[in-house]
Amino acid sequence: MTNTPLPRSLDPVTNELLPGYLLRLAHRLALPPLDLGHLCGLTTGPIFPARHLVRLDAAQAQEIADICRLHPAEVHALTLAGQAPGYTPLRIDYLGRHQSSVTMANDGWVLTAFSRYCPDCLTDTAQLPGGPVWQGAWRLPHTFLCERHNRLLAWQCPACHAPAFSNGYRSDGRWRPTQLIPAPGQRLNPARCRHRAGSGRASACGQPLDQPTGEHLPRPTPAMTHAHRRLAEAATAGADHEVTSLGQRVSAQSFFNDVRATVSAIRGSWPLACEVFAELGSMDAVTAHVDALRRPHPERTTALGDGRVARTFGHPPADPLPAAALMALTVAILDNPNGHHTLAPLLSALPSTSTAHIRLRQHATHCSPTMTAVLRGVVRLPQKAVGKPALFPQPATHRGRLDPRTIPAVLPEHWTTPLDELDAPRRQLRRDAAIRLVQMATGRSRRSAALYLGIPLGSLHSATVTIRPWQKEPGNAVAYQNALHRVAEIAIADGEGDPRGASAR
Asked: Which Pfam families match (predicted)?
């Protein structure tokens, strides 16, 4: 493998993802996308790993940049992590668990197993070098409409009726493993359907997707458009950006966890929410989606059933219409400062053994304080599952993302904005936060982290005994943990902009 630049290349288009860029470049060079993937060092075999869609390490990004005559920053911008930094499921430490890029590529809350698309957008970009552009946001499960053309996105090929830009599903209804580019060994215009039927060895469908589908979808309602904007704003937010959820300003991370909890509550108790928000429209689409999820497992996974439902169980619907209606419901609840009164009866209706109830137990601690309080009071979660203890052990949630060498014992002023919003002893809290940041980056013990920063053990003890009573007050430990995650993201952003930080990584 050499890093010899290609004879010709392309400039990435704003909001374009790596699969779409490689498709356009391969089409321009008259190469199968898989051959281009070999040249760029993204694969060595017949499979095009989808994990590259999530994020790239520095070496991979540099190799692609050298081959395609790009800057590494342009390459990183072709990943979902680069385009949606505020979208919680794309975090390595999502819900307190370390997840790999492979895990994320197969999680329906991270990205769809296919790509929705706007035929009009594909038409508008058809004359660009290499062909039409597939937008990055189309892969996110909460992106269901195109505001520019005021239409719901399409998701199926009008000819083969399979999900567009997908590796398809087997005859038993299960999805084939997601690939970065479906049918990567075949040369096709980027706007052509790449789904392969049967065993997957057949030729791709090849139907043009940049033409009117003949499907008469309803226009997005104002509630759908508003929900789409709210979710897109939070997904692209920076580390210090806050959004409103249940009447409180919270991090984008907490907001998306509230979204996931609300979706579980709505679907698990359906049709209760429909009775409250019937005026939002398209509730019959949500009903059809929920009915499909409630079918017996064999019916959901056989060739005669809707195999795609198996992928969407517990995740946003694949079909943009029920997805739009469900997200409009969700955002309507979270936009209301009294939304917790709406959530309470929905949560009360969930059987304690239901899948939705189990999921809520798993991520309740990562929601906003108001959502956590609702879950505690209605779902009756164990106390240990609804909040951090006063002196919670600090897990290594940012190992590999946050460089401990960039963390000073005295935090810079612009890092401490999230801490200053807390009603806590200012000096001791900043010192405690610096120690915890090192723990988040390395997994060290509290004592070892303090010594790493050069903080004397006497000062460590002083900070501990001062912060402990404050942390024991209701809600403070959760608010502190949320603030620490925001500080960590600011520190990471600073490190990425600092050449010394980049080299250290």
From this structure: TniQ
Cis peptide before 190 (omega within 30 of 0): no
Question: Could you state, in order of their start, the residue ranges of all structural domains in the chain?
Answer: 1-212, 222-385, 407-504
Q: Which of 265, 270, 262 is nearest to 334 (CA)?
A: 262
Residue carrying the six token digits 């999530």: 54
What percent of the residues of the chain are helix, what percent strand, and what percent coil, each to the nearest 5?
A: 50, 5, 45
Average pLDDT for the chain: 83
CA pair distance 221, 219, nearest whole angstrom:
6
Give the Cα separation of 86 and 227 in Å (integer): 16
- Residue 307, pLDDT score: 44
CA distance 137 to 116: 9
d(CA 433, CA 427): 10
- The C-alpha atoms of residue 64 and residue 485 are separated, in whole angstroms, by 31
Q: Which tokens hold the place of 142?
A: 């909460």
pTM for this model (two decimals): 0.73
Length reported for the chain: 505
207: Cβ contacts below 8 Å, ≥ 6 apart: 157, 158, 159, 160, 192, 193
CA pair distance 491, 497, nearest whole angstrom: 10
Q: What is the sign of the dihedral through the CA atoms of 227, 228, 231 and 237?
A: negative
pLDDT at 303 over 50: no
How many C-beta atoms lie closer than 10 Å to residue 52's C-beta?
Answer: 24
Q: Which residue from 204, 175, 177 is spatially nearest to 191, judged by alpha carbons?
A: 204
| C-alpha–C-alpha distance, residues 342 and 274, integer Å | 11
Residue 362 to residues 8, 137, 349, 382, 409, Cα–Cα distance (Å)? 49, 27, 18, 11, 34
